[in-house]
Structures are given as structure tokens and as C-alpha cells.
## 1
Amino acid sequence: MDIDEFRSHAHQMVDWMADYMDRVETLPVRAQTAPGDVDATLPRTAPQTGEPIRQIMADFDRDIMPGITHWQHPNFFAYFPANSSPPSVLAEMLTATIGAQCMLWQTSPAATEMETRVLDWVRQMIGLEDGFHGVIQDSASGAILCALLTARERVTGGDANENGLAGGPPMAVYCSDQTHTATEKGAKIAGYGRQFVRKIETDAQFAMRPEALRAAIVADLAAGIRPACVVASLGATGVGAVDPLVPIGKICAEHGIFFHVDAAWAGSALILPEHRWMLEGQGHVDSLVFNPHKWLLTNFDCAAHYVRDPDALIRTFAIDAAFLQSREGRQVIDYRDWGVPLGRRFRALKLWFVIRSYGVERLQEILRAHITMAEDLEQTISAAPDFEMMAPRVLSLINFRFRPAGADADACDEINERLLHALNDSGEAYFTPNRVRGRYAIRISIGQTRTAERHVTAAWTLIEDTARSLVSAQ
């Protein structure tokens, strides 16, 4: 493809992209295909000769788009959002065109220096104190792994990197019973072992109980197990649990334990001064992560990872190789030493575009609107005679269930599972299941870029109508 052809096709692609953004609300939210439907349309072998872009795009529309779940649909209430926005998309186009591999300052000075500056903008936006240094990871899961590896090296004095874990006493990781599975997965990868992940009980608000954490640490010390890392949550995935950083941080400081905070979703709400109470106790925090690619209008992947001691991170990951050496040396940051991958995309550009295009005030308005929608929906659910909240609302996250008169707990589990499947199969909205204290719940996360009050109102009408139709059909 020559440049003139590229130019022509690129203009057509931009028109397709704009049309998609304009019409996405008319599409089924969740893909309505069955397993294997898309695969059945794909040839069994690769083409031997090139095909025209026009034909490729026609096949894309016909065969691939029906199998796409539309995360940018305003009726997407599942999981947490993976938001996009026009400025972010434009920046991604530039990133793809430039095609820079930003592992070293020398391989793209602008990418490194922009990442440093933009991450400091964000640090100030969320109220994180001076002394934290930022790096963009692919995900909060990747940042948790970085924290676990850094904690491992701290507790072993760097010996694990040099000599491995064989023969040494076991190390323990502590998190709440609400913590994202990324902590357990990271502990497996980092060599702690699943059996040494301590899931600490939570209180009535689903927050980690500090006294239970202390008891677990004391018990491990008595058993010859080394406490290495505590992972606290700000906005845990299931019910949005917020762990108390003040008492947890004091316990970590007392025992010299690395303290990581996973704020993957709720961290975006820290741009709102009224929600910065979640960061009280940050003085003992060693690292924190949140994902602008969830709720801050920035395309996946973009996780803002902050560390208090970047040298500890670098000691954990740095590898000296002749082909990676540069004359700038310690004068610059080489982000390839700040995480697992050597190769790095120019992720800071889209975050820069988003912050500059919207400004802090507009971003705050959007998040406040989502939270207000959730507050209104919470009131509606609480007032409905045959529905109930299953956990306190946190920011824009709701867990509820349908509870028809006379139904016992097991019957409620069964009917809510059927209700969720019926809602999602309709294509009109998309929700996810949850278990709250062992009982089935339907989880609503409000936060898609284009979601407005009318979408939440329509979703609730759909829920009520579908629930009552299930009961009348029995």
C-alpha cells in the first residue's frame, strides 16, 4: 500500500470510526453470537496473495462486528468501564503511526519525558503527596506484580533475584477477602505460592479488619513465615470495598512490610476532593496504582503506578545488557527498568490528550454525574418493594437483587441468575453477576463515557419489566 492509498483508506476509516461512535447506542451491548460463530467465518489458512482493504473492511463489518461486545455503549454497566473518548482515540492513531518503542529515554526522549510530567500532573490531580514517582504500566495487575516482586526483594535483601527462592523461609502476602484475584495471581507468579496468600476477613462495610491483619502477621512470624507485602483496596472489584489505610499502614510500618494500594477503579474518583478521604493514611504507602483506562476516558491500556522509592523498583527489574546501554546513563529515566516488559508503547500521549482536551474540571463533572446517577438508582432500588441492595453503594457501583415475595434465599439466587441472563441476552444492556456474602447479586457499574441519566432510567425499567415477567411466567 503506497502513501496515497493509505491516505484514502485512512480517511474512510476515520469516517467509519466517527459513524461507529455515533451509532454504537443502536447496537446490542453484548455480542449476540454463539461460541464458534465468528471462527466459522474465518478461512482455515492465510491468504497467499494480498487482498484489497475494501474487501477486508467488508468482511470486518459482516463477520467480526457481530462478535464484538461494545464496551463504549452507554448501556454498558458490566465489570468496570474500559473507557474511550475522541481525544484518546486520536492520540492512539498518532501512537500507532509513529510506532515508537519507548523502552529507553534514547529510543524516544519525548515519550519518556512526557510520561514523567503527565504522571506528575495526575499525582497532583488525585492528591497524592510529593515524593511519589509515576510510571505507566499495562494494568493494575501488572503494578500489583511489580509491588509483590519489589516486596520480595526487600524482605530477602535482594537474594531472591540472585539465588532464587529455594531453601529460604516462606513469605506471606496479605489482602482482604474482597481483593481482586490479581493479588493471588501475582503471588503465584512471584514465587510466594498460593498457600501463603492470607485473605483477611472484612467488616460489615467489606473493608479489611486491621486487628485481623495484625493477628495474621503475628501468627506468621511465630511460625517462621516472613510477612512481605500487604495489598489494600480502594474500590475492590466486587462491592467496591475501601480498606482503611491509616491502621493498615501503621501495622505495615511497625513490621517493615511493603504496603501497596490497589485503587484500579476508584482511584479516578480521587480527582474529586470530596472523595480524597480514601487516601487518608497515604504516608505509610509504598506504592499505589489506578487505571485511567477505567474511568478517566483514556483508552486501554494505561495504569498509573506510583512508587515512593523508584530505586527499589529499579533494583528489582534492571538488567544490564550492552545493547541497552546509552551514554546518558543516570541523567535520564529508562522506564524499561520500572516494570516487567522491556518493550513499551507511548501510552502517555493519550493521557496527555485527554487531560488537555477535557481539563480537570470537565473530568470532575463527568465523574460526579456518574456518581449522582448511582445515588439516584440506589434510592430507587431501596424504595422498590421487591428489590434490595446487597451491599452499600460505593461511588458509582451498585449490587442488588430481585426478591419476589415468598422467595427464600436459594430461590432468590436462582431467579436472579435467570434474570441476569435474560437481561444480557436482550442486548439492551449488559450487567455482571456477583456473590455478596455467598448470595447471588446483580452488579451495576455506572461510568461509561457517554452514559447519561436516561440510560440508567431505561436500564432500571428493563430490569423491573424483565424481573416481573419471569415471576408471571412461573
## 2
Amino acid sequence: MKKIMHIKYRKKRTPYFYIMLSFFLVILCGTLLLCLPFSASGKPLTFLQALFTTTSSVCVTGLSVIQDLSTTLSVFGKIIIAILMEIGGLSFLTIMFFIFRIIGNKTNLSTSFLLKEALNTPDFRSIFPLIKNIIFIALSIQAIAIIPLMFVFVPFFNNDFWRALGVSIFHAISSFCNAGFDIIGDSSCIALHDNILFNIVTMFLIICGGLGFIVIVDVLSKKRFKMYRLHTKIVLFMTAILLVIPPIIFKILNTDLSFLECMFLSTTARTAGFTTIDLTRLNKASIVLLDILMFIGASPCSTGGGLKTTTLFLIALNMVSFMKGRSTKTLKRNVSSKSIMNAYVLLSFSILFLVTTIFVLTIADRSNSFTIKEISFESISAFATVGLSLGITTKLNPFSQIVLCITMFVGRVGPLTITSLWNHNYVNRKKEDIEYVNEDVIVG
């Protein structure tokens, strides 16, 4: 009897539960490590400071309740943050699966499905080769980027080679993982706003991390654009649009900003969180545009968060197809109804969750010291795992900081993962015992 009950209990655990659990356990371990006295250079971090910083690192967000990480954290603390960002960007499950396969452990069907969902891949085939490519590509890009970053930071830190090396490694990890943390100092990246090499290398890392590993593997393995899978074509198309149009709009709205600053701002808004300018200088229209870019985010199977570029593309495509009375298709391919449904569920959940977060934060702000613009910006930044802020993160009360921790966690794990926790028919859709007559419901 006990054995039967145990089997039934195990069946209730969906792969989505283990995806969430993996992130939660990493956050818990990271919090405990940052609470250690030698993780800080002076006074030890409080539990809430450690929890918020760890959550922001694992969820590759970049929001921080610590004013200056470079002076607050010890070398050990900075190494912990770098490891947490790498784990958060590549996914703990991906890293552990890679290690287990290297030492000879085999993978069963349930583990394969778990990785399929964690990586957001369309099928089971070639999961291990994909993971090997992910690890190799991620580490290679970050390692190569350290070299030009050294040319930036060695003179910046007055020829202090070892400090420059440490900052270069940290910045390469943070940029590729779209985490947004930096240990440059009080001035942060603003001191390097006109350094062309720094801007180009950082944007390159952000874009590579945000494209998604499936896209990078597809581009590197296939010679012609026609050979790319549909997903890759959509991601490249949407990324190109979002890299070209927003900087022009930012430049029109802010004539005092250089085009390099506008380009960096539009790139980092999806979803890295670095900034080379003081965001409080921006006008209302620019803040709204930043909100939109943060909400859109990066692409699937990437180190970034947000609604995702393919989701926006499918919703826009479906709306146009609906207006024309046609089926949803693109590039000589019909888009499945499941993909469209996922896009609308993701959009609906994201909006509902964001509205709830903003409402809760406005209630928590009893002193009314923050404007709705600042609270909305902070909420979107946390949910889309961006890390940009209008300067209110360190001023939030403990309850609001916990709310942001939850928001970052939900944004990184993914709304579709959250909504699928109750789906026990994840392999094959269960056939309904009773079928009912279809009837239209009046909408709009």
C-alpha cells in the first residue's frame, strides 16, 4: 500500500517542478554562502541582502540592494556572484546533466523531457550534443572577450593587472549571462560611456547571450540563411529590428546623448541591465520605450528574460493574419496553434503578474515616496530580469524587496513553467472522457 502511494506521489511531480526546485536550491546555497563573514570585505551581509543579491545573480537580473559591490564584497564574495551568474545563465540542470554525462551516467526519458523543457528545445533529439555546444560556446565567447576587456580595464585601474583581470572576467560573465552586475566601482559603467572598445565588447556579449544557444549553434553549423530553422530566422529578424530602430528613437528623443550611448542603452535594455548614462536624465517617452524594450526581452533558450522576441513576433503575426482572415503562416510555414496559444498565455500571465506586482508595491510604499513610474519601471525590470533601475532599489522596504525577489524568480523560471506546474499530462495530452458540443462565446 505504501509503495503504491509513493508511486502515485512521484507521478504528481512534473518536470516543471524540478526546474523550479533547481533554481530555488541554488538560490538557497548562494544565500548561505554570501552570509558567511568572509564573503564581505567589512560588515557581513544581512540575510535579506544576501538573499536579494543571490536571487538577482541566479535570475541574471542585476538589481541590487547593495550600493557598491566592488567595495562591499570580498574576493570570495565576488567569485560566488560570478559562479551564480554562470549557473543562472546556463541553467543548473544543463551544467549538472553535462557533468553526469561526462562521468558516464545515462539519461532516461523523464530526464530528457526535463532538459527539453529547461532548454526550451522543440524535441528530444541531440539534447546532449546541444548541451555540449552550449557549454563550449558560452565559455569560449566569454574567454575571448576577456582579452579586449583587459585593454579597457588595465589603464582604467592604473595598470593594476590583477584587478583588471578580475574585473574583466567578472564583466565578461555578467555581460554574456545578461546579468547586469559590475564591480567597476562607484561610477560603474558610466565612467566608460565614451569608451568605444568597452561598449562594443559589452554589446557583443549581451547580443550573443540574448540570441539563444539554438540560434548560435544553427548559425555556426549551417552555411546559408535558407538552411536555418524557422526559429532562427525569426530571432535574427526581430533582433535586427530591435537593434536598429530603438537607438534612432532614443537619439531623436534625447539629442544630448551620443549615438553610441543610445545604441548601448537599447541593447542593454534587453535584458542586461548595464547603463552608461544616468537614467533619471531621460524624459518620460524614453522611459516608456525602455519599459517596452525590457518587457520584450531576449530570445528563447538564451541567458535573457522577458516576453521573448519570438512571442512578440507570433502575436503580431497572428493579429495581422486575423485581420486578413487568413491562417497564421510565415516563410512558407504554417504556425501551429499550440505555439500561438503559448504566446498568448505567456503574454496574459506576464501582464497579469506585472499588474499584481505593481499593485502590491504601491501598497507596500506607505510613505508614497515613489512615483508610479519608478515602481512600474522597477517591476518590469525585475520580471524581465533586466536590472535597470531609477534608483529606488536600495530604498525599498524589506517587504518590497522580498516581492521583487519573487518577481525575479518567476521571470527567470518562466511564466510557462509556472503555469505548467499543474499539467500532469505533459508528455501526451490526455483524451477527455466526455466531449461537449462546441459553442461560440461573444468576445469584444
## 3
Amino acid sequence: MLQMPPAAPGMREDEIDTPALVIDLDAFESNLDTMAALLAPTGVKLRAHAKTHKSPIIARMQMARGAVGNCVQKVTEAEILAWGGIPDILVSNEIVGAAKLARLCALSRIAKVALCADDAGQVAAIEAAAADAGIRMNVLVEIDVGAARCGVQPGPDAVALAKRIAGSKHLIFGGLQAYQGSAQHKRTPVERRTLIGNAIDASRRTVEQLKQQGLECAIVGGAGTGTFQIESHSGVYTEMQAGSYVFMDADYARNLDEAGHFVSTFRHALFVLSTVMSQAQTGVAALDAGHKAVAVDSGMPTVWQRPDLRYTGASDEHGKLEFGSETMVPKVGEKLRLVPGHCDPTVDKFDWYVGVRNGRVECLWPVAARGGLS
């Protein structure tokens, strides 16, 4: 059920009902501009990942700054973006099941749509769905570049699958999906460069072998917020699929740069606004944001601009704060911003973004693809 908005434009931030998903609009717009500026000299395009924000509004803002489109993980997300006016969408994932494929084929009548495959059986199913719909579907071959999750092996196996796609009158070979997800949160630059270097080598080798068979890769896509600066300078990748950069979360902020400092390329722009609901225990306060308001799979959230407060545990509806004797004790009714450990699943817990600038609510945006699992 769609929930009532927790705020209205013109409200002060401290009047927002909590828990609420808050965007600092200045930081958010800075992140959009920073990514555009970093990619512009490389000639590589951004196909920002909408699984992070689940919003056609944000997708359009990314395209206004040069993104070629968006990628998603689910058919529902693709539908929401296409209905919201996004013209170019890649499902950077394997889609299995006749009903889902039929939905994707239907969507291709209002947007340019592509998806991935790593198995000949998947290709046959996509082919049958496209034939039934009377269309030609773009299909990318996903290769395993080190994450050991999805993807056919680079080289001959990938070439064989690409030839199968290219040989179908109902399909178009669209290129390679080559995402190294396990590299994104490696803390040191050396670790990230090593893993992505292997991914680049595997992708380059596969592209060259495809060329030998007369197959060109319109797209070689991958990369994320933690590594896009490496892939974008590789000379192999053509599209970056970073998503979390728009918001940043506490876990990405733990990555280190070459000087050993925390990476500060992008600003924290997404917060869960929470209210202190109890301070009955010495050195402990309870917030109204627990598991149901903030994801903790990548670690506990941090309390924005309050290093003296530690969010140490979550239950369904409570977040536990701990602090020392010298701390300014948080008062019942006080509102605090939490920086989520992982932005993507945190976003999926809310129906609304509350956009704030200079302490005032400026806009409300629906999290349009919330809960889109199919």
C-alpha cells in the first residue's frame, strides 16, 4: 500500500514525519554533475543503474547530464522506467520465464530494451518470446569476469553464445555485460585495480575473438561506483553502470584512495531521518528506525555529523544508539540523519523521497519501482 507522504513542500526538515527517506538536493545534484564531468573526457557513456534509485525522475536527471539510458535488474523496474519516459533500458541480468519475457518484449514497443544471457537455453527462450511478439530483441552475452555469480566464461564460450544470438532472425547481438561486482567494496586501490585489471583483460580478449568472427560489440558494459574510473580509462568498456554514486552510503565511504584517505569523490546525499523515541537507559537512546527502515547488510548506519553517537543495533522498529558520558545526550523528540550502510535496499523500504534544501522540503518524489521483484 502506498503510504501517505511524510512531508509537504515548504516544511522545515524538523517537521518531517519519521522514519523518512531524505535526499539532500545540493549533495545529490553535485554527485550527478561530478559523474558527468569525470566521464566526459573519456568518451565512455554512463548507463546509470536504476536499481539504486528506482525512479524515472532521477533517471531523467541523469540523462539530462549525458547518460545514454539506465540499466535495471528486474522487468518491473524496466516497466516503471519505460512508462516514466526513459527511452533506452538494459536489463543487466538474466530473465527467465515466459511471462517475464513476454512483458519485456511488449515493453520494447515503447522503449529500446535489451537483456543479458549466459546460456543457450536462455537464448532459445528469448528467441521464442521475440518471435511470438514479432520483434527483434537485443541480447548481450554476460561473461564472468571474476565475480563467480553469473556469466559464461570469457573467450570461446562467450563467442559461441554470441554467434548463436547473431544467427537468429529474432535477436540482435548487443555486446558484452562484464560487471565485476566483488571489486566494488575492496578497500584499497591496489585490490580494486588488480581485480578490475583481470576483468579488463578478459573483456578485451573476448572482444578481440568476437571481431575475428565478424561480431562487433556495440556495448561492453559494467563498472560500479567503486571502480568506474578504472574501467572508463581501459579502452575496452563503452558504458559505465554505476548506481550508488547518486546517493553514496556508509560502506562505499569506507573505500580508500591512493593516499590512504577515505574516498570523497561523491557526497552523502541520502539519509534516513529518524526520531529519538526513548532515552530511558544510561548511555543508550532508541530511534524509530530499525530493520524496517534501514538496511544493515553492509554494516550499521552512521549518524550524520555526530561521531559521538554510535548506531549499534537494530530490531524491527528500533535503532539502538550508544554514547559516552561526555556526549551531548540526545533528547526524546530530537531528529537525526542516518547514513545507510547500503543505499539500494534502504531505498526499497520507502514509498517517497523527501527532497530537502537549506533545511526546507523542496519536493516529494515517489520511489516508483519500490518492491519490483519480478
## 4
Amino acid sequence: MIKKCLFPVAGYGTRFLPATKSMPKEMLPVVNKPLVQYGVEEAIAAGMDQMAMVTGRGKRAITDHFDISYELEHQIAGTSKEIYLDSIRGVLDQASFTMTRQREMKGLGHAILTGETLIGNEPFGVILSDDLCLNDGESVLQQMVNLYKQFRCSIVAIQEVPKEEVYKYGVISGEALKDGLYRVDDMVEKPSVEEAPSNLAIIGRYILTPDIFDIIRDTAPGKGGEVQLTDALLKQAKNGCVMAYKFEGKRFDCGSVDGFVEATNYVYENIYKHSIN
């Protein structure tokens, strides 16, 4: 039903400087796999096989990662090291990749709009690679696809956060339809504690309907002078329907050093060590 997933990967990753001065933040490895590959694998698990990347200057490593490296393949062919390429070979066999550039950093809404030419007039997933989501069962995006089949509207993933941290996120309020599922009636981008309508924070997983592109086009710059996806989604919610889903699974904020280290430790102890034994 939903075949395309959009990856806004043009950001600078300033919180990881100087490492990200010449290396895309999305290529930071959690143990032995870059963040963006975890996201692509999640999209594939949700039934999506067309990956649309909105990149920027200095992001060529992402394009190269999702391509064949003939020299490397030749050098390790037939050796014990060849097994280390299995995961990326699997990704390349199951998905196609298209790229376009966001020439100016004007916010997440602008990045989504930049990807319109790659998506077209159909619903699509969005993954922000900074948010690493891990599950024993269905991936977060798969859970959201299942909901889309029922509601056929835009869906955002949400998580309860400490009240004092709401300023880092887009925050929603809405009517609870059942445990963990809300029909959104308000959204605020990075509110103060006093302004926040709840402590339900949007994290980097979305299912969006294609009318969002026209809404973004008509959305003025908001918080920080950027075109905010949150503002466009609020318009969509007021004029139609946007659902918010409290997902099942673990989420690590790998856009922060603390979250990145936490994710690395978790993956090493719970996934990587078991894969090599």
C-alpha cells in the first residue's frame, strides 16, 4: 500500500562536531552499521521498497553507501570478511534509492517539500535517522502502516517525555480514541513548559498523505524562522484528520551524544554480540 519512504538527510549534525564536519551525521555507526541503514531496514520491514533521500552538500557518503563498491567487493570476495557485507547487500537487493538535494536548510517542512518530486501523489513514510527505533516484533513504521490501512490519514509517532524536555520536540494534544491512539487537535513546535499542550512528543516517524505538500507550500516560516512540518500537520489536522500513535518499542535520540552512546551500548549488548556468536 505504501511503497515509498522519505529520508530528510541534509542536516549538518552540529551536535557531533567535529566528527560531522566532513562526515554525514546519518553515517555515524551504531556499532557496525550507520544510522541511516537502520532506518532503511525499518522501512523495508514495513513493506516499502523505494527510498527517497533528500540530501545536501557533503552528503555523498550516503549515496555511496547505498551503492556497489566494486573495489571493496573484489578485494574481500571469497574471504572470511565477505560476511560483513551481507546486511548492506540485502538492503540493496530489496530497495531502490533516489536522491535530490535540499539547497538551503529551511526546516523539516521544507525538506519534506523538496522530496515531492521523488514521492509524487501517493502516501509515504518518513524516517528521521536521528531517532533509532528498535523492536523485537513489528517495526514502528510497520505499526503505523497497519494504522494507515484503517484510518487513511497522516499519522505521527509519539512518546511521553519528561515535562521539562518538551522544548526539544513538537508536542501534540488530542482526543484519545483508544489506549495509545489520539486524534490530534493541537500541535506546538518546541514549546516552553508553560505552552506545551501535553508531554506527548512527536518523534521521527511519520506516515503522510500527499496533500501535505500543498499545505507546506502555503505554510509560513514558524519557530526559528524555518518551515515547520508541525505547523503544516496542524493545518491538516484542523481541516481533516491527523492521528498520533504511541508506538511500541525502544527509541534512542541519536541526535544527542548521550542518546547515541546509549544506543551503541544497547545494540552491542542485545543485538551485535548475539549476531556474532
